[in-house]
Amino acid sequence: MAHVPVTGDRSPASSDPVDTHCPYCSLQCGMALRPVPPDDGPGDGPDDGPGDGQGGRPEGRPGGVEVVERPAFPVNRGALCGKGRTAPAVLSSRVRLTEPLVRRPDTGRLEPATWEEALDRIAEGLESTGRAYGRDAVGVFGGGGLTNEKAYALGKFARVVLGTSQIDYNGRFCMSSAAAAHQRAFGLDRGLPFPLADVARTGCVVLVGSNLAETMPPALRYLTELKEAGGRLIVVDPRRTRTAEQADLHLAPRPGTDLALALGLLHLVVAEGRVDEEFVERRTSGWPEARAAAMAHWPELVERITGVPVPELRKAVTMFCDAESSMVLTARGPEQQSKGTDTVGAWINLCLATGRAGRPLSGYGCLTGQGNGQGGREHGQKADQLPGYRKLDDPAARAHVAAVWGVEPDDLPGPGRSAYELLDALGQDIRALLLMGSNPLVSAPRAAHVESRLRSLDFLAVADVVLSETAALADVVLPVAQWAEETGTMTNLEGRVLLRRAALTPPPGVRTDLWVLSGLAARLGWEKGFPADAEEVFEELRRASAGGPADYSGITYRRIAEEDGVFWPCPERVERDDAEGAASASPADSASPADPVSPPGPVSPPDPVSPPDPMGAGAHPHPGTPRLFLDRFATDDGRARFAPVSHRPAAEEPDAEYPVLLTTGRVLAQYQSGAQTRRVGELNEAAPGPYVQLHPLLAERLGVAEGAPVAVVSRRGRAVAPARISRDIRPDTVFMPFHWAGPGRANTVTNPALDPVSRMPEFKVCAVRLEPAAD
User: Fold this and answer.
1) By C-alpha distance, which of 242, 215, 219 is closest to 671?
2) Which listed residue, 46, 410, 757, 768, has the most CB atoms within 10 A of its CB?
3) How many CB atoms lie within 10 A of CB 174?
4) Which helix (H) or strand (E) holds 397?
5) Where is the composition biased (Gly residues) (predicted)?
6) Is the confidence at residue 605, as pLDDT, over 60?
7) Beta strands of 394-525 (E only): which ranges?
8) In the sheet that 30-36 helps form, which strands lie side by side, from edge to edge?
9) pTM for the predicted model, two decimal places
10) Structural contact between residues 423 and 446, judged by C-beta atoms closer than 8 angstroms
């Protein structure tokens, strides 16, 4: 692995390799960071300055870190993609923020400021807005990459200190439709109800709308091992991706028709007598209504809607049902639609009707996207939730969390706006915004409109590791610590709670998000209740989540370190009849925030250890829950619930003016809005910019040549990028990756039409026209 230098006084938290996790996707691949001391001797190669991703040791090499594989970690078993391997490049002071910035009224420019001034400006901006316009005029926007501790503290800060209901996060754009369908069918939302290792051992996997080979490459091995063991892989995607190339059967439906496809498969299951009647009778409810809905979607109709031939539909049903065990895994393809909840519900119906749920090596699962997309929505930064995945409008949940926070239940605000609706209200109902770990100017749908709304705010404060496009609009920008510089927990797509450890101290001018919230809370009258220490926050999170659907009360830093992660739900203990007097987890006392301007030492020790949990007689630690639903589902009656859903068109269908469909997605070498990966030279060489993928027939009709600039125009705006002509996409569809700002910003064009249940925007399908663009 290449050495990545880190400039400045960056003394490592330990001289030994530090076990941690990749900062990017929801796999949270295990890795170790090995501190490399400075070397003043002669070099042996070119300067591998941060951001160029090259190897070699320059003369007078600065100290830094290098990535070391962790083969023993069970999720990735040592494998890393290029993003993970080059992740330390963004730690360099050359590409990151290292001091607070404040916009000066006289120049209108962001200029360096002290921490005292920056925090004072934010506190005044938030407090004065609340006084003038009401508490809900202040908004908070979080991110799916924040640790559990940060997500918890941010939600608490919004509701207790600011008293606002207006908080949501960019994870709403990730898997909220799958989460809603999970809740509706099973009574509980966890991305995968089983470990990833089970995927390699099942008989058939239907992978819907996921390009694992590019979005999370280390996970592709599970599909390879599945096939090597004799299992079958069906991939559903309008493009022939690298993942689809591995499939035994590739179904390429028209974008926006995944719901019809799932219903057509269920129709064939019924018609061919493949329903597991005993399972349906014993462990489900609502089958007659779901069956009637599916029978209205006969194969020939589904072929007309989706473009998938009837013989391929029949082949898919045979492969899925003939296997002794089967799984359906979905990702953003079917979820990022205005009917995403119903679409996922239809795929769950297929699992339930065939008895492929609540049994070993079978079931429905969602491949979460963001690093902490799972944990981020469990502990309070989502508009309608409290810690432990409790509902904000549930009186019992409000009472429990209010008691932990030391406030009255009636003082907690109610549910607020969803992510896009919150962004759409900026500059109108919401006049000030605190944003942490998100770049909506690139990642939100109808992005030009969102940009105008951000610009219309009276006050915007952003905490980030780099000067993102959104941060560049802010009145105050705070430089915060990165993944390798702070300790905290993440919850991966399996529901495995992991420990990310600090390997380096932050640069002198950088602070942690928890430290920032602690300092702001103190300025706004809450000198206690917002500790800056991550483990102390986690101890409070354990108490707040206790008894909730996402119960973390039995999880400690010690257990995570010893067990390579703990699966939730994990209550503190398993009760026995003689368990009277068993002690609960000791609450961590709230402490006053540290001096908000003192230079930080190591954020937390590299191998944090909690004291042993106190256990009373007759109780023993809960082992965690790697596999859900084997005995019962999490509904009131223990039965899974069918969803009686029917196909409906996308919010925006092609017409004479906009005759082509656009779908969007990710590429191998970039991540999300690209705020970090676009600062890594090796990744930029592999994926230097946006493009428009289109079929040769469409290119010929438009007179577009390979590499020529082409404009993709929708009712919301125009994006321009070079043409990439390929037979791997349907002739009626074009594809754009969404990682870039500027003229090639794909989300300028996308549709913010919302799913009525999940409030997920319809990123994955909209009507466009293509035009040759000037060079």
Assistant:
1) 215
2) 768
3) 28
4) helix 395-405
5) 51-63
6) no
7) 432-436, 459-464, 476-479, 488-491, 496-500
8) 3-5, 64-69, 30-36, 18-21
9) 0.91
10) no
